[in-house]
Amino acid sequence: MSEESADNSAAPAVCEAKILFRQLKPFPVIDENNNFKIETAHFLESSNQIIDAIACFGKLFSPIVKDMRQNVQKITDKYKQNESLFKYLEDLILKDKDGNDNPFDTVTDGLLWLKRAFEMMEQFFRNLLEDKTRSEQVKPHLKKAYEECLLPYHGFLAQKAFQLLHSFLPSRSSLLGTSDSNMDNLKALEEFLALFRANLTHLNEFYTKHDLHRTYKA
């Protein structure tokens, strides 16, 4: 991916008839080269690009897209306060938690909800990959992902809002391309999800280690 396309999270190519996963910046590798932490700037850039891709689902998805963007912005605002100190996402969260009387009305809480939304989308795309029938009907895949990842944290109104969104999902081919042309896109999706899941698993373990999970309903 070129520097120009990486810098432009709203690149038109992301919003073509299908999501082009080869053009999305993969989430960070977590290894000894970065102290087994997530680089904040890289995470934010990848987050913005996958949110742009989700925005291609249609205007009715704007509420969930808006919510994800707001949570990314919370992290971005905190990061810009001290980019050196907050180079790694884990350090940013721990400083945020320690510096507030109520850490769960802050960046810590924003990342928690962003993680949950991302988990739903990661599971949705993984369900698409694992569907051997390649059915054009993708609603069951999103419903299953929602029930596993977000339903436990949603109250009545939030559940009703999801039911409306669920009714207006694009078809499989409009998201990933037609069967004749989408093999590279499916391969790119598989590669993208590997690092996406690794980041989400790492954040889950981090939140568990520092007792940052909260189970209140939205």
From TrEMBL:
GO terms for molecular function: ceramide 1-phosphate binding; ceramide 1-phosphate transfer activity. Keywords: Transport. Pfam families: GLTP. One of its GO terms (cellular component) is membrane. Signal peptide: none annotated. Residues 38-177 form the Glycolipid transfer protein domain. The keyword Phosphoprotein does not apply. It comes from the Eukaryota. This is Glycolipid transfer protein domain-containing protein.
